[in-house]
Structure formats: structure tokens, C-alpha cells
Amino acid sequence: MKKLNMIYEGKAKQLYTCEREDALIIHYKDDATAFNGAKKAQIEHKGMLNNAISTIIFKEMARAGIPTHYLETLNDRDQLCKKVHIIPLEVIVRNVIAGGMSKRLNIPEGTPSPKPIYELCYKNDELGDPLINEDHALALGVVSESELITIKTLTLQINEVLKKLFDQVGILLVDFKIEFGKTPDGKIVLADEISPDTCRFWDKETMMKLDKDRFRRDLGKVEDAYQEILRRLELIKTV
Predict the structure, then answer these.
(1) Residues 6+ away with beta carbon under 8 Å from 117
(2) Cα 162 from chain centre
(3) Are 95 and 175 in contact (CB under 8 A)?
């Protein structure tokens, strides 16, 4: 399967048309950004690592019955995925308080949440991807009530699958951000990626950060952290 025309370039990926009208090729880049693009860099091999990590996770989601846009991995940087209309919402689950929520509410980072915290952000660069609630999402007209129910149900199921997966390799799933898309027949599926770019992963014993926070906070050894996530997942990955 060959890439044809690039139709979109984001912060970490490029989208290309291909020989299949119902599919796109997603190319993973080495670019890293933080703080809405204010901080930028290139991290060697990041695209390859995120592609490999997302591949393992998407296959695990399929095994658990979670619908996704993933079709197959073509090479070390490219995935073939179903063509979907991306719903302009970032869906966040927090199992442990960290990052923006810690600062916003003055809760010490690392505080466990008594239950998974479900949040929505409106994907809009000009507005800085603001935090919204479900009523706001309906007012924006980006989803229906039934679609919101489906998205929340799938998100909480995804959280359970991820927690179980990473618990097996000694990693605490602190939080994560995902996106959903709609297929031409209206089915809602998990889209985008799941990787150290979109999740917070801490080693359960040392609490060492193994994710993009190493870049955000200038902690160094970013590539090493991503490689460690992949190394551990490869011990249990499903084929």
C-alpha cells in the first residue's frame, strides 16, 4: 500500500490518501510539541516507537472488542487505518491526579482518584482546546446525546483494558487522552493513537515518568522512556 497525497499534517502525524478509498495511511513523525505548540523539538525514533506502541495497543483493543480505526501496520512508521470523520473532542480519563488537573485544583500530583475522572476538551487550536462539559459539546453541535453515551461507555471500557494491560508490566496508567471518529455508516470508533505522547505512564515501583512529561518538563531521556514502554509491551503483546 503506497502513500499518495498528503491531506493533513498535525503535530505528530501526517495523513495520506492511498489506493483504498475507504482508508488512509497515518505516518508517525519524530516531532514533539508541548503547551499547544509553544515548545517544539525532534525526538529521534519517536515516530517509530509510537507506531509500534500504538500497534500493540490497537490489537489489544480489538481483542477486547473495542472498535477502532486500525487496519494494519505497513512499516516502521506507517499504519493503514479506516477513513473516519474525527469528532472534535479530546476525551480524557484520569486515574491519578497529575498535570493540568493538579495545577488547576491544587491537588498534589500523584493523588489517586477514588474513581476514574472523565473529562472533555473541545479540539480547537485557536481556543487552546478548552475544557468543556457534555452540555457544551451538545451546544457546539459536534455530537448527539446518544453519541456522547457511546463515547463515555467506550472510554471507560478502554480505561479498564489499558489499566489491565499496563499493570501486567509494572506500569501505572496515570491518565490518557483519546479521540474518536465516525465511519461513513455512523459507527463511533477509537481513532488517532495511544502512546506515551497521549498517556502518562509511571513505573509502579520507582514512580519514574515514562512518557511525554519527560519532554514537557525537561527531564531528559525521552527516547529511553518510550523505548522502555515498548520493551515491556513486547513481552506480552498479542499477535
Answers:
(1) 92, 93, 94, 95, 101
(2) 11
(3) yes
Comparing C-alpha atoms, which of 71, 62, 76 is closest to residue 24?
Answer: 71
The position carrying cell 520507582 is 206
27 bridge partner residues: 14, 78
How many CB atoms within 10 Å of residue 210? Answer: 25
* Total length of the chain: 239
- Burial of 66-100, coded b for 16+ CB within 10 Å and e otherwise, reads bbbbbbebbeebbbbbbbbeebebbbbbbbbbbbe
Cell of 165: 494491560
Q: Is the dihedral of CA 50, 53, 203, 224 positive or negative?
A: negative
How far apart are the C-alpha atoms of 55 and 51, rounded to whole Å? 6
pTM greater than 0.90: yes
- With beta carbons less than 8 A apart as the criterion, state whether 15 and 6 touch: yes
Phi, psi at 64, each rounded to 5°? -85, 0
Q: Which residues pair with 215 in a beta bridge?
A: none
Of 31-35, 78-82, 107-111, the one with minimum mean pLDDT is 31-35
* C-alpha separations of 94 from 12, 69, 166, 174 in Å: 23, 23, 15, 6
Sequence-distant (≥ 6) Cβ neighbours of residue 77 within 8 angstroms: 27, 28, 47, 48, 51
Dmax over CA atoms of the chain, in Å, equals 51
CA distances from 239 to 52, 53, 73, 169, 171 (A): 13, 13, 12, 17, 21
Contacts of 144 (CB under 8 A, 6+ apart): 138
Q: Is the confidence at residue 239, as pLDDT, over 80?
A: no
